[in-house]
């Protein structure tokens, strides 16, 4: 399948600072792609390159089959990079009408996008009176004005309260279900895990993984609560190898086929260890993220 966004060896340098270092990523048609990384990892810089706001230092970048920033590419791309900026003393409606005129978009499209982001009732209020969540939704509305094929959103839930985050996640899921392709950046692991099909993880300017969310989370594991825990750790490490057994809060996380649960339970009991809890678990995306960004791993995760 041809990618809508294809980046190879992307590098961006500001003087002695290497903001983006050899990034490769592919965004496929119809998916919601999460670009995940801590603040300062290079997410916004990459998205600014993809929208033609800045030029890369080196590397190959193709968006919708063309060069970022060209009129034919911009005509099929909607974006919200960093905080949305509008005229503060104009209403949300008038701000969108002004943008629609610049973009040569029919006026009826303004009403359509206001409905999409659930802002119709407050559309005549001044932008300066909007809450942060309303400002973010108006930014998404502006990104959708041209009915774009590709939507690029930079930290769309940044600064929102829980209700605002919930509404924004719902909106992004709806965009994906409508057949649009969505590329969003985030430092919020739960957000990406809930709404994205695939995720690329960036740390210190370098991509450390790119996979389907479920593939990143990997196979099921066993969580075991046993006492004494250190003795249980020793027994399990002897059976499975030290790399398969990890301390997890007051439990042990064991990377093993869950079908072996009975065998492991028996071995622990025979060693005089009391097992009070044993169940299957899937690694959360949070676990994968911290494993990758703290160990400096640069390879795929299965």
TrEMBL record:
The keyword Transport belongs to this UniProt entry's keyword annotation: yes
Molecular function as annotated in GO: ATP binding; ATP hydrolysis activity
Limits of the ABC transporter domain: 5-229
Pfam families in UniProt: ABC_tran (PF00005)
Keywords: ATP-binding, Nucleotide-binding, Transport
InterPro entries membership: AAA+_ATPase, ABC_transporter-like_ATP-bd, ABC_transporter-like_CS, P-loop_NTPase
CDD domains: ABC_BcrA_bacitracin_resist (cd03268)
Family: Belongs to the ABC transporter superfamily.
PANTHER family assigned: ABC TRANSPORTER, ATP-BINDING PROTEIN
Protein name listed in UniProt: ABC transporter ATP-binding protein
Organism: Kribbella sandramycini
């Amino acid at each position: 399948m041809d990618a809508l966004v294809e980046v190879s060896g992307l590098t961006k340098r500001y003087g002695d600072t290497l903001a983006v270092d050899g990034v490769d990523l592919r965004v496929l048609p119809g998916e919601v792609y999460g670009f995940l990384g801590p603040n300062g990892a290079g997410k916004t810089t990459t998205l600014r390159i993809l929208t033609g706001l800045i030029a890369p230092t080196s590397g190959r970048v193709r968006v919708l089959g063309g060069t970022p920033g060209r009129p034919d590419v911009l005509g099929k791309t909607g974006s919200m990079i960093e905080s949305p900026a509008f005229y503060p003393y104009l209403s949300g409606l008038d701000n969108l009408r002004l943008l629609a005129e610049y973009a040569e978009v029919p006026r009826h499209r303004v009403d359509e996008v206001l409905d999409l982001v659930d802002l119709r009732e407050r559309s005549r209020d001044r932008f300066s009176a909007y809450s942060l969540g309303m400002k973010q939704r108006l930014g998404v509305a502006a990104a959708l004005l041209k009915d774009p094929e590709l939507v690029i959103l930079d930290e769309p839930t940044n600064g929102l309260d829980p209700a605002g985050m919930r509404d924004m996640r719902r909106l992004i899921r709806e965009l994906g279900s409508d057949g649009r392709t969505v590329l969003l950046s985030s430092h919020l692991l739960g957000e990406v895990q809930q709404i994205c099909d695939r995720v690329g993880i960036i740390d210190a300017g370098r991509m450390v993984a790119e996979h389907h969310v479920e593939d990143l989370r990997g196979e099921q594991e066993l969580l075991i609560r046993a006492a004494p825990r250190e003795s249980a750790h020793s027994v399990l490490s002897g059976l499975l190898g030290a790399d398969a057994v990890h301390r997890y809060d007051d439990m042990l996380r064991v990377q093993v086929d869950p079908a072996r649960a009975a065998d492991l339970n028996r071995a622990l009991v025979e060693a005089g260890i009391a097992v009070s809890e044993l169940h299957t678990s899937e690694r959360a995306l949070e676990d994968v993220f911290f494993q990758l960004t703290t160990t400096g791993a640069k390879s795929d995760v299965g």
